[in-house]
Amino acid sequence: MRQNPIQFVELSTLAHATEDLSKVDKALRTLLLGNPQQFTRQYLEGHHGNPIVRIEAKLTEENATRFALLLGSKLAKSERLVLLKDIDLHSDVDGNLFIRLDKQKLLQGAFQIAEDDPIRVKIKFNRLVGDSKSAMIRFLEPD
């Protein structure tokens, strides 16, 4: 039996008190690209007592692979090249690739890398399949 190159995908973001939770949900649904998924919510308190909601989801097996491939196809060539150029900043030795996407742009259907107030995507590459860094590079290489 052949192993999937992608073990799982985790999505997470923070919704601050100033944000409309329905819009954050919409951005997450846009990011999921049609994959059905349940989200967990954790209600937190910020430094100044302001409410913050941490929203997370985990995709496994075929759903994770399907999602990752769709995400790779939605990222512009220039976005993938940015991730490739700084692959060491966007990955770790445990086979995880970290991508931060602009939450506001997702509301408009655009998949753009961002550092401020992102939706975080963690793609765990299966090290049993081979070198995870090589798999990440193959995943990010533009067509």
Count of runs of 4 or more consecutive helical residues: 5
Main beta-sheet strand count, sense and barrel state? 5 strands, antiparallel
Helix content: 25-40%
- The computed structural class is alpha+beta
**Ends apart, CA distance between termini:** 28 Å
In the CATH scheme, what's the topology name? Answer: 50s Ribosomal Protein L5, Chain: A
Instruction: Write down how many β-strands occur, each being a DSSP E stretch of 2 or more residues.
Output: 5
What would you say the CATH architecture is? 2-Layer Sandwich
- CATH superfamily name? Ribosomal protein L5
Strand order of the largest sheet: 2-3-1-5-4
> What pattern of helices and strands is seen along the backbone?
EHEEHHEHEH
Strand % is 25-35%
Which CATH first-tier class would you pick? Alpha Beta
Low-confidence stretches: none
Give the overall form: globular
Can you tell me the number of structural domains?
1
Integer average pLDDT: 90
